[in-house]
Design goal:
Shape: globular
Number of helices: 8
CATH superfamily: Glycerol-3-phosphate (1)-acyltransferase
Helix content: 40-55%
Mean pLDDT: 82
Distance between the termini: 25 Å
Largest sheet: 8 strands, mixed
Order of helices and strands: HHHEEHEHEHEHEEHE
Number of strands: 8
Low-confidence stretches: 1-19
CATH class: Alpha Beta
CATH architecture: 3-Layer(aba) Sandwich
Number of domains: 1
CATH topology: Glycerol-3-phosphate (1)-acyltransferase
């Protein structure tokens, strides 16, 4: 119903939801200003960025009525830094993963997003790294840069499938990049399994539907004994964890659903 008491049309609902998404992005401006203020007051760029990292994703989700119910939340802080992997279905799940990580993380995204006036700008502000998948030499150089940041204490957030997959299909093949970063930096891998992102949005859609997303954060996986020879097997094992978790969702008592 509208404020006039008349039923709201489907077009009105659609515009309102898209408007909420735009409003969520608009919140980045005041939050970014706050981050600059924190950075100046503390004389710490990282503290300023952490204010942005821990605040804006949650506000964007809350603005759109998105809540999440988390199993294994203790694994988010069990070992940091780490390479956090999430299964990628739509444009919302990166923000869910980011909201969970809070502090001291950077996002790896495909190079195409660098030219996006909104997402690209926000990723650059947050020290995001853009990976050129069509240029192997450039990709290797970028991964070396990410490894150094991880050694400096920053966790890495990345979707191992690369491009988001159809919301109704299974887990796609995992690319090697995230795993090689973990090996080079000597930090563990932490799988973030998102079960029902399709209730929030379809792939490449601006239509956002309020709802609660189920998330399972699995225990950190050490990579100390991994080698390049055994890497394909380890990648397959990690991917299988996603398939098994989605097929047989944990029965642990989840953390109460919280707004972004």
């Amino acid at each position: 119903m509208t404020t006039t008491g008349l039923p709201e049309t489907s077009r009105g609902v659609r515009l309102r939801r898209q408007g909420n998404l735009v409003a969520g992005f608009g919140l980045a401006l005041p939050v970014g200003a706050g981050a600059l203020g924190v950075g100046l007051l503390t004389r710490s760029r990282r503290r300023g960025l952490n204010f942005f990292r821990s605040t804006w994703p949650r506000l964007l989700l809350a603005t759109n009525g998105i809540r999440y119910r988390v199993i294994g939340a203790e694994n988010l802080t069990a070992q940091r830094p780490a390479v956090f992997l999430y299964n990628h279905r739509n444009g919302v799940d990166p923000f869910i993963a980011a909201a969970l990580l809070r502090d001291d993380w950077i996002k790896i995204a495909k190079k195409e997003l660098a030219s996006d006036p909104i997402i690209g700008t926000l990723l650059k502000f947050n020290e995001g790294v853009f990976l050129d998948r069509d240029d192997p030499a450039a990709a290797v150089e970028t991964l070396h840069e990410v490894e150094e940041r991880a050694k400096g204490g920053l966790s890495i957030l990345i979707a191992p499938e690369g491009t988001s997959r159809d919301t109704m299909t299974g887990v796609g093949p995992f690319k090697k990049g995230a795993f090689r970063i973990a090996m080079a930096a000597g930090i563990p891998i932490v799988p973030i399994v998102i079960r029902n992102a399709e209730i929030i949005a379809a792939k490449n859609s601006l239509k956002i539907t309020p709802g609660t997303v189920d998330v399972a954060v699995l225990p950190p996986i050490p990579v100390d004994e991994w080698t390049l020879q055994t890497l394909p097997d380890h990648i397959a094992e990690v991917r299988q964890l996603y398939l098994d978790t989605l097929a047989d969702w944990p029965t642990d008592v989840p953390k109460e659903a919280v707004p972004g």
